[in-house]
Amino acid sequence: MNQERIFQVLVGPHASEKAAIVTDDSNQYVFKVALDATKAEIKKSVEQLFDVRVAAVNTLRVKGKVKRNRFGLSAQPTWKKAYVKLEQGQDIDFALVD
Questions:
Q1: For the domain that residue 73 is a member of, what is the CATH number?
Q2: Rounded Cα–Cα distance for residues 57 and 77 (Å)
Q3: I want to staple 9 with a disulfide (CB 3.0 to 4.6 A). Which of 37, 72, 77, 96 is the partner?
Q4: pLDDT tens digit string along 40-76?
């Protein structure tokens, strides 16, 4: 995988209450990823960007909600998130990432 694709796969960390609970309890981190990203690409990207060892990757597509506004209906985009489980003793500190 080329260097450019590594940066395209991971969109950013996903911050939510559930993500914080999962991070504290089971050493998993939640990322927003590209819709066409595979589990293997996500694993390689996380390992190369954060210099950690990944044990498992679980992905899911979050369907965009349909919202009503004064112009009618509009849809928020569908996006994909990945739960990345790290090996024992590994840790990601987002504040120290270059």
A1: 3.30.70.330
A2: 23
A3: 37
A4: 999 999 999 999 999 999 999 999 999 999 999 999 9
CA-nearest of 98, 18, 15, 9 to 54 is 9
Q: Which domain, by its residues, includes 41?
A: 3-90
Which contiguous run of DSSP H or E holds residue 26?
helix 17-26
Quick one: which H or E segment has residue 4?
Answer: helix 3-9
Helix (H) or strand (E) holding 33: strand 28-33
Q: Is 24 left (phi over 0), alpha (psi -120 to 50) or beta?
A: alpha
pTM of the predicted protein model: 0.88
Structural domains counted in the chain: 1
